[in-house]
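Revision sheet: structure tokens.
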Amino acid sequence: MQLQTEVFGDVVVVHTPEELSHDQAETLERFLPTLEQRYVVLDLDNTESLDSRGLTALLDGQEMMRELGGNMKIATTNHANRKILEVTRLDDQLEVFDSIIDAVKSFC
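Predicted:
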């Protein structure tokens, strides 16, 4: 599976798949360190299914990018995903933005 990306200067936006579970989470974790940019915004807008393995991948991805000298932030207007991040309190550990533009600008 190839993940769609967009580059905005030093920031890359990675559009996550419709389902972020076991197989897709592993793909995401393998994909992130291959990026030239170390500042990443994960766009969760199109992700309709997000399970515990997907949530773990978000935390692991952030840790991985920080170890590489960068950072990772989340952008989503998907209410279900925002609720999942709130209920699991991952919104305390991950920076979550309402738009891709706001997330990209936060790196400046």
